[in-house]
């Protein structure tokens, strides 16, 4: 079954399909979550929470875009960043409830993002790593701050003591170049 077919079965509340999704994605998502949290035990809890969210919020997945890989990765990232922020800024975060999850945890993907299959991504892992390694140290750092630390452009600008428009253009150029290199590898 494709990832999209598995998600359709999950949408029908097929628990075996959720187990299949877990088998396919748990290692990848755990690695991402653990990179953000740097705490194995907490990362395991967050991974479990991610799959509970998938089960409870499957109707929020856009079957038109059918971009399972990107949706799951961003869902795991958003949840891990939320836990990180809550643990480091107790009392400063909004109440965690259904509305909050829908607004800040569930990814909203553009229809222009091409769907990716996990199998294809894993088969091109070396090429993707090569594309990432071709980024300059400054590009890697800015992307790391934005993706893994969840910093907004203004926060990155303050941290690096450079103008926000410079950060914005660096991110856009870097992501554009990276997307082209990865697209070449995947196709």
The 3D shape can be described as: globular
SSE arrangement, N to C: HHHHHHHHHH
Total of DSSP H or I helical runs spanning 4+ residues: 10
Find the CATH superfamily of the largest domain: RNA polymerase sigma factor, region 2, helix turn helix motif
Instruction: Note the beta-strand portion.
Output: under 5%
* Main sheet record: none
User: How large, in whole angstroms, is the Cα Rg?
Assistant: 17 Å
Class derived from helix and strand content: mainly alpha
Domains, number: 2
Helix amount: over 70%
CATH domain topology of the largest domain: Rna Polymerase Sigma Factor, Chain: A
Give the CATH architecture of the largest domain. Orthogonal Bundle
Low-confidence stretches: none
Mean pLDDT: 91
For the terminal residues, how far apart are their CA atoms?
A: 21 Å
Number of E strands? 0
- The CATH class designation of the largest domain is Mainly Alpha
Summary, kept brief:
The protein has 187 residues and is mainly α. The protein has ten helices and no strands.
């Amino acid at each position: 079954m494709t990832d999209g077919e598995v998600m359709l079965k999950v949408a029908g509340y097929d628990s075996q399909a959720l187990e299949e999704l877990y088998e396919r994605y748990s290692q990848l998502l755990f690695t991402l979550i653990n990179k953000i949290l740097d705490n194995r035990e907490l990362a395991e809890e967050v991974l479990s929470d991610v799959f509970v969210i998938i089960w409870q919020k499957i109707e929020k997945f856009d079957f038109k875009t059918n971009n399972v890989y990107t949706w799951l990765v961003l869902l795991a990232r958003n949840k891990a960043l939320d836990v990180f922020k809550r643990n480091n800024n107790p009392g400063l975060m909004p109440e965690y409830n259904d509305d909050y999850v829908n607004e800040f945890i569930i990814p909203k993907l553009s229809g222009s993002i091409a769907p990716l299959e996990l199998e294809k991504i894993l088969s091109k892992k070396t090429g993707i790593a090569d594309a990432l390694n071709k980024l300059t140290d400054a590009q890697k750092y800015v992307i790391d701050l934005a993706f893994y630390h969840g910093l907004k452009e203004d926060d990155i600008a303050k941290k690096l003591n450079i103008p926000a428009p410079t950060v914005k253009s660096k991110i856009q150029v870097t992501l554009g170049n990276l997307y082209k290199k990865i697209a070449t590898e995947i196709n």
